[in-house]
Amino acid sequence: MTELLITGARLIGGDAGDLLIRDGVFVDPASAGSDVERIDADGLIALPGLVDTHCHLREPGREDAETIESGTRAAARGGYTAVLAMANVNPVTDTAEAVEHMKAVAAETASAAVHPVGAVTKGLAGEELAELGLMARAGVRLFSDDGKCVHDSLVMRRALEYVRAFDGVIAQHAQDPRLAGAGACCHEGEISGRLGLGGWPAVAESVIVARDVQLAEMTGSRYHVCHVSTAESIDVIRWAKARGINVTAEVTPHHLLLTTSAVEGYDPTFKVNPPLRPDEHVEALREALADGTIECVGTDHAPHAAHDKDHAFSDAAFGMLGLEASLAVVMDTMVAEGRLDWAGVAERMAYAPARIAGLTDQGRPLEVGEPANLVLVDPERRRTVDRAASLSKSRNNPYHGRDLPDPVRLTLWAGRTTFRDL
Amino acid sequence: MKHLLSAADLSRSEIDSILDLAEEMADVQRRPIKKLPTLRGRTVVNLFFEDSTRTRSSFEIAGKWLSADVINVSAKGSSVSKGESLRDTVQVIDAMGVDGMVIRHSASGAPAQAAGWIRGSVVNAGDGTHEHPTQALLDALSMRRHFRSLRGGFDEDWSGKTVAITGDLTHSRVVRSNVLLLRTLGAKVVLVAPPTLLPSGVTTWPAEVSTDFDAVLGEVDVAMMLRVQRERMSGGYFPTPREYTIGYGLTTDRLAKLRPDAAILHPGPVNRGLEMAADAADAGASRILDQVAAGVAVRMSVLYHVLGGADDKETNA
Fold it and tell me: Hey, are the CB atoms on B113 and A195 less than 8 Å from each other?
């Protein structure tokens, strides 16, 4: 019988307390055996294991950039115990067999629970529905063509209608492909105009969100907006929620911290989709995450091999790493600013993401009888981020050289230590 | 000066120095034997990821007349499609020991990125829709020559001069470099285009903006017309070529409304009948061929400033 006793950790909504983990479950600390392994967590905060609604693990297909093994090690380093892995791998996760394959690899190699996201359309082509029902039977609840927008209104309507049968969620990468066309690689504004980079206007996101929430209302379905990046989208989401439409949304850590000015030097590390936005959008995103208009943080962790980034800005791959620094960024942009307390962090980074993704054994309170998914957080420790130190296989780290919190001291996934630094 | 990446990098004195030396270089152009030993032993690679006969030839001639060893490398198409990254491409060439690269690329910022990856010097020969600094320099040389040719001459005070730049501003690298260079010189710039062809944030540029060409026509000392790319004509930027010409072309009627001492510039090649009438291109005030000739002299001067003599190079290293 394996036992771990964590003593003196600060618990959400209460004082310091002890946590006893036995066989992957929290049990009564008073029942600890004499030979129990002890961890002194004095000064540390105990949070439920974090859940990421949105990451890219690149396996199968681009194992040179990331694997399920390396990606979930990075996740554990960031305090995550569950991740939703987007479908834009090769082959695309658009069949039950592809789902089962990813789960089988994860069962062998992962350091966090891996929940495959199913594609909405075959091959992410935006034309024909993928086998949503068969993927649902394989356990999928979240469906997304992420990386591409389901831009055909009728296809979107059918997808929303269809997943209602099994309480699925359609997660949209909201990007009108005409307004933000092939050359769009930078927020459309003063900087894109001056640097001569293809502009991605803010409304290219909000017009799709506006259309989709109306379709969600018509169909009565669950709709989730991936990586919200603009103030206009937030306005639409607020309007939709006020009408009772079943819409949820996520924001990435990089959109909470970084602004368009990061692309001034044409460094492709800062090329991401949707693009980094100016201050006023960043402020709107922080406000919306604080007031719950945006329910959760999704990392959009997008590892890329160096040879996919070492191009001219407009030719380089979109995306940046996110799993390891996500909590750190939320601490600096939300907690330190007084916008979220630690209970709010648990809600936005564990409880809400698990609810949205339909996970029943994640995003649970640290209570007796619950699965032992836990992260111990040091609220004081900081570091200068070094991209070479990443556990990801890739190095496209937008925080390299930046002073950030270094909070994660221990991550437990179902009682198993997946990251430890104490 | 290690690199020339943006017109914004140049101070007033550097611009004057480049233009003054260009005038000396222009004298070489008129000699029967067009050769200076200035860059003997230096190797310059013209690395063109995008076709440009005019600019590439101009840099090639400039380098050869300065006795540099000039190698043209055509890397047409994006480096992505060839499977090699931009970084690999420029580092491989740099590793061969070349002294400078003249880079033309369809992507904005590519020369600036390259400059961060290699040891040698980089001259931006046009990057995407960003900048084309040597074009702005040769435009400035043509303008200066024009002003000097007028009765009363030119006291080098650009603050009284107004340059209208008209056409597809959004996709023009020429306009971005010209605005920056002319700001440093002190001239007033008026940008004219239909709203669909005005760049995002153009109101923050150091220039006035107008959508009414006729309203500014009579005030300008220089009417610089920009080429309208053929693909823009079907891109929804304006309804028809006919409507564009009526609104923004330098037509025969508008030619008559220009001040008699105003110069006409165009980076070429000209779409006759679209952005300017044939008689405007051929008018006495047209400096278009002078721009082409000035291109070689300016690029000789730029290569000299960037690659320098032996002593300069050592101090730059």
Answer: no
* Distances, alpha carbon A119 to alpha carbons A116, A128, A144, A296, B148, in Å: 9, 11, 5, 21, 67
Dihedral of CA atoms A90, A91, A94, A95 in degrees, nearest 10, equals -150
Which residues on A lie below 8 Å from B202 (Cβ)? 193
Label residue B29 by pLDDT band (50, 70, 90): confident
Burial B136-154 (b: 16+ CB within 10 A, else e): bbbbbbbbbbbbeeeeeeb
In this prediction, the answer to ipTM > 0.95 reads no
What are B250-266's pLDDT values in tens digits? 999 999 999 999 999 99
Question: Do residues A122 and A129 lie in contact, with contact meaning Cβ atoms separated by under 8 Å?
Answer: yes
Spatial contact of A260 and A191, defined as CB atoms under 8 Å apart: yes
Residue with structure tokens 């092939």? Answer: A182
Subunit contact B109:A189, Cβ cutoff 8 A = no
Is there a cis peptide before residue B206, judged by omega within 30 degrees of 0?
A: no
Torsion angle, CA of B173/B179/B180/B181, rounded to 10 degrees?
Answer: 100
Tokens of A78: 């960031």
Q: Is the pLDDT of residue A215 over 60?
A: yes
Residue A61 has pLDDT above 90, yes or no: yes
What mean pLDDT value characterizes chain A? 97
Q: What is the DSSP secondary-structure string of B232-265?
A: HHTTTSSS-HHHHHHHHSB-HHHHHHS-TT-EEE
B54 marked ligand binding residue:
yes
Checking if the pLDDT of B317 tops 70, the result is no
- pTM for the model stands at 0.93
Interface touch B108/A310, C-beta < 8 Å: no
Provide the pLDDT for residue B308: 83
Distance separating alpha carbons of residues B3 and B29, to the nearest angstrom = 25
Residue located via tokens 């310059």? B44
Best of B85, B106, B173, B176 to mutate (most A CBs within 10 Å, chain A)? B85
Exposed (0-12), middle (13-18) or buried (19+): which is B225, by Cβ within 10 Å?
Answer: buried
The three-state secondary structure class of A339 is coil
Within an 8 Å CB–CB cutoff, is residue B209 touching chain A? no
Section A332-354 average pLDDT: 98
Active site residue A300: yes
Integer Cα distance of B144 and B187 in angstroms: 12
Environment class of residue A16 by beta-carbon count within 10 Å: exposed (0-12), middle (13-18) or buried (19+)? middle
